[in-house]
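Quick one:
INPUT:
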């Protein structure tokens, strides 16, 4: 099932209102977001980096952890009135204008 960002924001909002009672406050959700990003980093450092997995880490699911990050980020967007579709488009436009030649001219990327 393909979901747009707008639909994802509505789905998360509906889930919060029916299952989560209410949103945690913005500061709490920011702290939760950092925790979730840390869990992604932990997996990445073990799967793609030089650290090794402990037995308790071997059954982790990178996709699930990334979805946790996305869920909390969507919560924060909903709480702060951010339309993620619009924000992403503006961000891509900014990056395109700023970086249109920079990466092609970067010798480190060749």
């Amino acid at each position: 099932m393909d979901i747009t960002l707008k639909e994802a924001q509505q789905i998360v909002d509906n889930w919060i209102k029916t299952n989560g009672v209410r949103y945690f406050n913005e500061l709490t959700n920011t702290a939760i977001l950092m925790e979730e990003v840390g869990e992604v980093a932990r997996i990445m450092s073990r799967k793609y980096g030089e650290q090794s997995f402990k037995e308790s880490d071997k059954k982790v699911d990178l996709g699930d952890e990334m979805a946790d990050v996305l869920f909390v980020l969507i919560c924060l967007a909903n709480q702060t009135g951010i339309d993620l579709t619009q924000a992403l488009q503006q961000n891509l436009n900014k990056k395109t204008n700023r970086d249109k030649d920079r990466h092609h001219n970067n010798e480190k990327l060749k």
